[in-house]
């Protein structure tokens, strides 16, 4: 919308809508931060991911894979207080890590 042609009331209404949208975005981000990581869903995800990436599924390979990926995508001292890293903070896993799975 071109604000040059709006009266004061319309500009105020537009700004209020923008502020409400921004507040909803902030509220949603805060809610996601409060929830943290759901242990069961994360475990299922890692198991499925490991099945698709590992040529042989033995317990050592599975644990190596899960620990490596988990440590690469999260930050925190314990799973109950861990948070996902921002996308920009996550680094590509090394070729040595990938080769170990094959």
From TrEMBL:
Region called Disordered, residue ranges: 1-27
Designated name of the protein: Uncharacterized protein
């Amino acid at each position: 919308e071109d604000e040059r042609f709006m009266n004061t009331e319309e500009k105020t209404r537009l700004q209020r809508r923008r502020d409400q949208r921004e507040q909803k975005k902030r509220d949603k981000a805060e809610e996601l931060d409060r929830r943290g990581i759901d242990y069961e869903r994360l475990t299922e995800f890692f198991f499925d991911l490991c099945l698709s990436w590992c040529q042989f599924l033995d317990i050592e390979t599975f644990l190596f894979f899960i620990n490596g990926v988990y440590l690469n995508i999260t930050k925190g001292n314990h799973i109950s207080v861990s948070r996902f890293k921002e996308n920009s903070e996550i680094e590509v896993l090394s070729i040595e890590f990938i080769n170990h799975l094959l």
